[in-house]
# Entry
Amino acid sequence: MQAFNRKLYTKIIEQTYRQYTIPVYQRSYSWKKQQCNQLFDDIIDSVKKGRNHYLGSLVYSEKTEDNFSFCPIIDGQQRLTTVILLLKALYDSIGYEDNQRIKNRIYNSLYNDNCEDRYKLKLKSIDSDNEELEKVLMGSIDDLDSTSNISINYFNFKDRLKKVIEEGMTVDEIFEGITNLEIVEIILAEEDDAQLIFESINSTGMNLETSDLIRNFLLMGIKDAGKQREYYKKYWVKLQNDIGKENVEKFFYDFLVMKDTRYIEESKVYENFKTYYRLINNQDEVFEEIIKYGEYYKLIVCNNSRAYSKKSNVLCSLFGLLKHSTIYPFLLNVCEDFKDIQKLYKESLSNEETEQIRIKEKEFNNILFLFGNYALRRAVAEIPSSSLRRFYAGLYDRVFEKNKSNLEKYYKALEAYICTLSTYDKMPSDSTFNEGLHYKNMYKKSRVLRYFFDIIENDNKERVDMSDLTIEHILPETLSNQWKKNLGEDKYQEIYDKYVHTLGNLSITGYNSEYSNYPFDEKKKMFKSYINEDKTKITRLNKELLDEEITFWGEKEIIDRADRLSEIIIDKYPYPVDIDETLEFDKYYEFYIDDVDNDGDEYVDNPNYKLYGFSYDGIKYKSNNFKNIFIDIIKLLYSFNPTILDKFAEEKFVFENGTRIVFSKERENDWQTEVNSNLYVVTNYSRHMILWWIRELFNKYQIDLSNFCILFTDKD
# Structure
């Protein structure tokens, strides 16, 4: 590897018979107008102050054939592309009678004359941007996509150039500013590891997205440029097209959680992916896995997979509507176990095969419905979601790992597990669900509320489109004096606070402003007129507004309406019946200690649980009390690296303002426990202090706390 401080224009761009290529694994051109304006301002400022301007680095390799150099860019493509756009904008801004010397010089720096057309451009961009960049460089300006960054920045440069020229700056001065740009040129030798160099540069620089890093890691390992392009189109472009570019980042997170069955920090997805890749150590297998699970993701997240039924896609859409995305890694596992379902939509099958797979498809859809029901109930009951990510990460293993025979009772096993838990991750009961529907604030859960309105109103063949309608409070958000009088001066505030945003008081309408905060009898008259004039068809939801016997709207009426609507919803999403409680599971309850304000009281003080021990890096360790957990952790850490603990011991660690020696190489007091012959540690701490020490030691060892948890089990 060679590094030089260079003038970007004269030593890089202006060099003849060479082509800088941006490989397919590089991200698309992403500089925005703001960044381009900053560069332009820096160039103009460098002219005024008579100094150079440092732009950054350009990293590339070089291969020469028949006196022509091919230079794939490893890093710096955004800067180089932007300067090329600026040069072309300046070239196009120079009139026919103006400075032809500079115009000719720019032309010769942008194009290779007297060579094949494919080598004519000095800079060739990646597939997705190549067409737009080529249009600019070849003069097809009218054909540009006006929304592309290439187009936006080119025209912005033209506008900026026109303005500074009108203000008196000459073309010579502007061109001089461009030639003042300096870069660090890094040319890689054949033996250099381009991927490691790329990672090193970008660890402190460009803030690439995780998906960019993974794409580069996968494709930079392919040395043959033709095969690189083939794999890019066959696998990476297909993945992006299947699930959408915006979902690629999340896909890899969910994919790796599914593979690892543990919580993974989003900031460490790239490192985890490299570990996964190296464990498989088979490039084609990794690519095929990504595409296979991408199809599952297309069903789960995009809800438009043709490899599954419309019903399966609709059932999955509920998770997105509820933003219940922590379930995705678990569902990837379920899709893999039911992968034969895709044969129904991709292959020609015999009647017998079709019938067998239809049975599997029915069970698959039942599983999707079960967890949709679970997600809805949690949302309505406002069960905290803080534990869900970890719950779903380990759910598959807990249900199927201990007892493989559970796979033969797939749906029933999952149903039994979530219905027999004793934590708040248990399926909320009908009474909990019903109470939430009656008394929780449903107005702030507008997505859930609208979903319920849809299934209530459209439970028939003639559907009513409610997408443009707004949520209406029958008891209004702003109470008029008449409403207060009707409810009772001593009761209206209590009724308002308790029910105004609940299901029983909410409906949907296209006439929200018309209803305003009119009294109930006025609202009824208005609604009936809208019905008679065929202005609204929302009748099932608004049954009470048509009922002649209901002349008052207060607490009883709101509860009665909530009873009616809740019955419809619970009938649509019933609690599972005939739960098989004989099935066995790996029922460990995990308490993670990364929350410094939580000492696990909900487990320790609960008579239904008993301490099992702890789990570290996926391995379970049995310990019957917190003191022994602390000792076992110290032993583990000492086996990894004794240096840190030895240093504590050598210094005879004492807390600030304390007198008791905590760590030492010889026994210093009666409170110390001998961990090994060279290490004594005070261990008779409270649970609070033991958890504090574990956090501190993990921090010292730079170990992720998410890999550690305290385990509890049900009491016999």
